[in-house]
Design brief:
homodimer; alpha+beta; four-stranded antiparallel beta sheet; 12 helices; 37% helix; globular
Chain lengths: 363, 363
């Protein structure tokens, strides 16, 4: 448990807030507080620890040498959103990274994971990435998820503990229960750097996001392909005003260090691809504004229960800043509720209205 | 004059500060305060008003329609730094945009402007751009200034007044005293938009920064070529961490709107040029870091008086944030003092040291 005084102090400082959602009352840490990560939840006297931040290395060879002494596991990093799934009372629920109960993931998790797993393992928490074109949160999806969503388990925790199960134990559980998981590329050593570079070159070509390295004593690091960096830039360019400068400077630096490490002959095409990523996203915003007088993106996702679709809209409206969430449609199709909605990017809509109308900008 | 109570209030709020430099004692508005622009100076009971902000239009045709009812003058915008030059006692001094007495410009102004102008016109202030490869402030310089610096007058003010002299009067004075000035392209009307587009297309091809439009009643606006937008991005990429996100998002939007307005067939090459602008600046930073363990840029400028060179270094050290100013050399050559110095970009140096050393970044 977390010390009661610490919890009180966090609430006083507005780092932890009471939430009431989908019939649950719980406390959610909305920010990192001392050693308690953002997204940590107190629910029915149980602590579900937040999923920790994983640092990123920008250069492969030197980065691995610096971060890991011994061998390390290499797993795919899937481009989706992070959830923690566990049993609460008689139900299985999914928490988002920020500690909200996600009505969409909670609704759908049984389609991907046999829920009897949680009956046999009421103390375990599956940490998974949810990815695919029909998710309500992020606009990118991995090329190997062609429709709807998929779930990819990558870690297992115990309720009340910050630690992850050791890699071998996690893999045994995944196998035993046939849990859907991220691709595990195996255990590597520092002598395998050329093999790893080949692996990342292949993942890059396949449009995959990157890898997570997992070493002894919980040491971890991630590394992202240039494909994913460009894709992030392209997707977000449409809503460029929303993100902090570091979002772009970070990705640009990663891209340049990737070109440095792989050699310019192999990567010269990235010059034009970067220009296109930035320009095309903005073009798209301008074209849309001229037609619709707004800049927005349409999302679609499927539910079993209508009330979960409505709860999702409520959650998105409550948690989105500078974004207006507008329901388009909610209808039954092939036994499921299909929700479509728009996220209207208010900053970009406002700025383009001003600029295209001939307005002045002072800088 | 500015009301004494207003001055006191500005000082109390730290928007105005006492400066003591080059033998002058004066008050400098370090920020905009009510209707007093940043850079306004109180010196020897005279107010030298700050040069006002000029808004930028992002689209040419609609922007001009929106900003000007009648005809407007079009002048070149030169890529340099803004100064106000005037007589103070028996000397002629130059203030920077921010209201510092610039020891470099003050030292050199007599090489470009016949100082008898100020004897005959002790109440006039010349507003000018100083540009060229040997200036101590900015890394870009217009292609038509091949060496040292040049001075380009673009406005004339009177001491104690916020207003500019009318365009015709300004042009007469420039002609009468053979003052060096920006190129004046003439007086245009809204019917001349095609001519203006041709002009900007030509300026863009010549690597020039853009134009300032000057209409009735002091209305003004500026428009920047895509060349200058790309050049800004390329030059600053080496010190990318220093600038706010808006610096880049603004320039990207300008570039895309330029492509939109001019047509993609004519501007498709900008995709690759944008990618190169961003990537090459960062590459340059990485290459330099690997050789010298720091990211920096070398400046060189010439002075008549050695003490002005030393005063410039002092000013730069006092006013540069996250930049270390290191003197390289100060020697006499052809009767002038040549100062060379480095600006070390501390943020970029620190980040690259961390990243290339294999460090983690949490985001």
């Amino acid at each position: 448990m977390i010390d009661a005084d610490l919890v009180k102090e966090a609430v006083r400082q507005r780092k932890a807030r009471s939430e009431s959602f989908l019939g649950y009352e719980y406390l959610r840490f909305s920010d990192d507080f001392k050693d308690i990560p953002r997204g940590t939840v107190l629910l029915q006297d149980t602590v579900i620890w937040g999923y920790p931040h994983i640092g990123r290395i920008f250069v492969l060879e030197r980065g691995l040498k610096e971060q890991f002494r011994g061998p390390f596991w290499v797993e795919e990093k899937v481009d989706g959103y992070n959830v923690r799934v566990f049993r609460a009372g008689n139900e299985v629920i999914a928490l988002s990274r920020g500690g909200y109960i996600c009505p969409f993931t909670t609704d759908r998790i049984g389609d991907f994971i046999d829920l009897s797993f949680f009956e046999e393992n009421p103390d375990l928490i599956l940490c998974a990435e949810v990815a695919g074109p029909e998710n309500p949160y992020i606009e990118e999806s991995p090329p190997h998820v062609k429709e709807d969503i998929k779930v990819f388990v990558f870690d297992i925790m115990k309720k009340g503990s910050k630690e992850f199960l050791p890699q071998e134990e996690k893999l045994r559980i995944i196998e035993r229960y046939s849990l859907p998981s991220v691709e595990v590329f195996g255990r590597f050593t520092h002598g395998d750097i050329p093999k790893l570079k080949d692996l990342l070159f292949r993942l890059n070509g396949e449009g995959r996001e990157g890898v997570v390295f997992k070493g002894e004593e919980g040491r971890r690091a991630k590394y992202i392909t240039s494909y994913a960096n460009l894709s992030d830039i392209k997707i977000t360019a449409k809503n460029m005003l929303q993100l902090p400068a570091e979002y772009y400077t970070n990705r640009l630096l990663r891209l340049v260090l990737f070109m440095e490490e792989e050699g310019i002959e192999k990567t010269g095409h990235l010059y034009e691809e970067l220009g296109r990523a930035l320009i095309d996203g903005l073009f798209e915003a301008i074209e849309q504004f001229k037609k619709e007088h707004r800049v927005s993106r349409t999302f679609r996702c499927r539910f079993h229960k209508k009330e979960n679709a409505i709860a999702l809209l409520e959650l998105l409206r409550r948690t989105s800043r500078h974004i207006q969430v507008i329901e388009r449609d909610l209808y039954m199709e092939n036994g499921m509720w299909v929700l479509t909605f728009d996220k209207v990017f208010l900053n970009m809509t406002g700025l383009l209205g001003h600029l295209l109308g001939g307005g002045l900008v002072f800088d």
